[in-house]
From TrEMBL:
<keyword id="KW-0175">Coiled coil</keyword>
<dbReference type="GO" id="GO:0000981">
    <property type="term" value="F:DNA-binding transcription factor activity, RNA polymerase II-specific"/>
</dbReference>
<dbReference type="Pfam" id="PF09738">
    <property type="entry name" value="LRRFIP"/>
</dbReference>
<dbReference type="InterPro" id="IPR019139">
    <property type="entry name" value="LRRFIP1/2"/>
</dbReference>
<dbReference type="GO" id="GO:0000978">
    <property type="term" value="F:RNA polymerase II cis-regulatory region sequence-specific DNA binding"/>
</dbReference>
<protein>
    <submittedName>
        <fullName>Leucine-rich repeat flightless-interacting protein 1-like</fullName>
    </submittedName>
</protein>
<feature type="coiled-coil region">
    <location>
        <begin position="68"/>
        <end position="340"/>
    </location>
</feature>
<comment type="similarity">
    <text>Belongs to the LRRFIP family.</text>
</comment>
Amino acid sequence: MIFARLQNLLTVYHLVYLQVDDRLERDYLEKGSSLASTISGATLTSLGGTSSRRGSGDTSISADTEASIREIKEIHELKDQIQDVEAKHMQNLKELKDSLLEMEEKYRKAMVSNAQLDNEKTNMMYEVDTLKDSLMELEEMLFETRRELEEKCKDLEREKHAHSILQFQFNELKETLKQSEELLTEIRQLRLKQDGYFREISDLQETIEWKNKKIGALERQKEFSDAIRNERDELRDEVVQLKDILKVLIWDANRQVNDLRFKLVKSEQEVTAHEQNVTRLEGQVTRYKAASENAEKVEDELKAEKRKLQRELRSALDKIEELESSNSHLSKRLEKMKSGRYKLSQIQLS
């Protein structure tokens, strides 16, 4: 557009120059024709006139000739001046054209640089938006990781509490099992005592049978003396006492045997139940230990992931800050380019 205006301006100057040149040529021709007519008239007058008229005509012709010569000189000087002005004007136009071409090249480069800066700004804004989205995703991941870490910590605390409870129950069951073993030992001792009681009862029964036989023999021997009768009575009383003692011993032995059988059955049931509970608790303790180890491992992994996310977050924030600084610098450069372009347009318009 500016180059077209310059071409139009050059065309106008050229037309003006042509008009001035034509006008000068017309003036020159008019002056020449008037001079020729003057000279022709003067010649004819000198040829047909008197000597007195010849003198006055010569004076007039010489004055007109000098005036015409001066005018011709002035015309040539004016034409030379016009040519000088035209040469200077053409030189100025050439310099202006070169300057304009240089300014257009600078303007084109500035526009290209401006477009590149706009593209870089757009790309950086897109990258900033992408980084902001990534930052938001990282913040969400960090929040989710923290929440999972808190849940895992709570689960770990619950597992530790359950493990402590199970450990306490396990210790109680071990103590109960120890008491059951002691009770079984006591039952075995009672069984040994019971066997002793049975042997004593058997001995007493044998003694009673022997006494009964002896009493029968004494009854058959009525001819024995009173001493033997007294001994018989004593033996009978002793037999009655022994029977009473035997009944008491048998009842007590049966009671103890029944108690021991009940305690034995109950102890065996308790031992079986305790062994099952111990097995179950050992399995639970093993599972809880494995779960606790897994929870600690997950906690360590979550802590490592948290540190990694924090490093990525700091890196993203630093990159965003760097891009914002670069964006601000590019915006300032863009404003300077726009200001320079505006000043250039003002200069071209003026």
